[in-house]
Specification:
CATH superfamily of the largest domain in chain A: Glutaredoxin
Shape of chain A: globular
Number of helices of chain B: 18
Radius of gyration of chain B: 22 Å
CATH topology of the largest domain in chain B: Rossmann fold
Largest interface: A-B, 42 and 51 residues
Oligomer: heterodimer
Distance between the termini of chain A: 30 Å
Number of domains of chain A: 2
Largest sheet of chain B: 5 strands, mixed
Largest sheet of chain A: 4 strands, mixed
Number of strands of chain B: 9
Structural class of chain A: alpha+beta
Distance between the termini of chain B: 43 Å
Structural class of chain B: alpha/beta
Bound molecules: flavin mononucleotide, FE2/S2 (inorganic) cluster
Helix content of chain B: 40-55%
Order of helices and strands of chain B: HHHHEHHEHEHEHHHEEHEEHHEHHHH
CATH topology of the largest domain in chain A: Glutaredoxin
Strand content of chain B: 5-15%
Number of helices of chain A: 8
Radius of gyration of chain A: 18 Å
Amino acid sequence: MNAFHAKYQTEIEQILAKYPPERKRSAVMPLLFLAQRDDNYISPNELADIAEILEMSVTDVASVVGFYTLFYDQHEGRYRIQVCTDLPCALRGAETFFEALCKELGVSSGGTTPDGLFTIEEVKCLAACHRAPVFQVQGDGEIAYYENQTAETALQVIAALREKAVQEARSREGAA
Amino acid sequence: MSDQVYLLLRHREIPDLDRLEVYRQNEGFQGFEKALQMKPADVVQQVKDSGLRGRGGAGFPTGLKWSFLPNNLWPHYVVANADESEPGTFKDREILERNPLQFLEGLMIACYAVQANTGYIYLRGEFWQIAAWLDEKIAELEQAGLLGDRILGTDYSLRLYTHLGAGAYICGEETALLESLEGKLGQPRLRPPFPAVEGLYGKPTVINNVETLSNLPVILGKGNSFYRQYGTDRSPGTKIFCLSGRVNRPGNYELPLGRTFRELIYEHGGGILEDGKIKAIMSAGASSTLIVADEKALDTPMTYEMTDALGAPLGSASVIILDETVDMKWLVHKTVSFFRHESCGKCTPCREGTYWMNHITRRLNSGQPNPEDVELLVDVAREIQGKCLCALGEFSTMAVLSGIEKFRSDFNGS
Ligand SMILES: Cc1cc2nc3c(=O)[nH]c(=O)nc-3n(C[C@H](O)[C@H](O)[C@H](O)COP(=O)(O)O)c2cc1C
Ligand code: FES
């Protein structure tokens, strides 16, 4: 059993049980989400371990990572702030909202804040067009929606996440 | 004001409908229980007779689709399409979040009708919380003996599983969805064979949209004469219209098929933002042909057949409203950049065509276009049409060609 398998053994078994035993490959996306849980990115080791569990080649798993936009093989912000600027939202001020947010955070589209916590990006429709402006936060293995936003409310969400990260760092130091 | 009719969005009238005991007190699982007493072929026939058409975009008759599954190839699978990624579409999400048991009951009826013992729910990756929520509901149903082995004392067994996508519009297309569920890149398959014969893992498979499936408990539970009192002969039932864009009250509105655009936009949607003037309607999200919002269009009943007559399919009924503030060359760049981003890259005309259309529409909006850009754009769009494995390429040309044709002055002098 490789390191990734050992780390998430129960969950991996649960995921594999969803698919016919001879169709293990179906589990590749759920396992990639699992790999992203701790640091929002898939490391080369995790990639190799997943390939081994599913009896796929590493290249095959890597191509899946490359195809789907919610998988990352680069280490960026712990939290990805993904603002929808697609047509219906843009008709209700989403582009202005996005620019204001970038300005407040001092980063441009696709950039990461200096503390390494937040990467801000524009995304396509999130199925929340009636509640524009809207963004989602992808991080800590979860995806959460924030709807009917203003720059002020968005900054509060970001401040709360930052506070959480600071608290965690403190308690880690305390434990050490 | 004509009221909405809640056959699907029943949670708006019944608090806590997402709780199993409340759902059961409100006719929940009566449709499924009735189905279990019927021969599977009779369930298929009843759904055929109900006239239900697919709510995922194509409007294909649901019962007919089920009847294509061969009975000499097993197992059969049912896959619920919860990818909901067309810009302007947010109806399946409301059903899944607020009335999940009606959706699950519908999926269970579909599984029984084609005798599938396994059903998958393919959700867009962003619906991460919804997937966890459905997993909880599925576990409750297993506890209650409504899912699992030998359901309610019959010899029918069924298990349901959620599966998350990871950010790819193309995975809403049914064959790309199946590829993705098999752990591959989400790229469409060549047809035939159709999924009804060779679908998931090469086995006969039904793929239905979340809203389509959510109609089934009503059809089985209350019968076809009840169901058919809503809508028209060729478009029976209610439909959830996702209203977005330049209106005062964007949102989901469940209306019998056959109500007019005018009613949707002005009565339910509260009219145009800032008392503006309506310019155009997109009835099927970013994939729409642009409809000039004249009196005739506004008075058109929203059914599958009538919008076809306007030259614009109803699709998933994602109605985006555009007013006089919207410049069509900006709009066309928005839709094209979406399709350029979402093209899976498999077919050259779509991959290259969306790339070039994105390039040209950007230049059109830059203030420094080339004189022949509009004609070039039309040529590129025409080159994509009819040449791809799936409809994405086609979709990418709809707003472009209709926009230039119907709103030419927005492109002049650009
Ligand atoms: C590019 C593309 C994207 C699609 N996206 C979706 C989607 O997000 N949800 C959906 O239900 N159907 C979508 N469809 C339609 C499906 O291919 C399929 O027709 C539908 O799920 C069938 O279900 P129905 O008969 O219940 O409507 C899409 C089709 C295409 C070509
Ligand atoms: S366009 Fe932004 S959520 Fe749909």
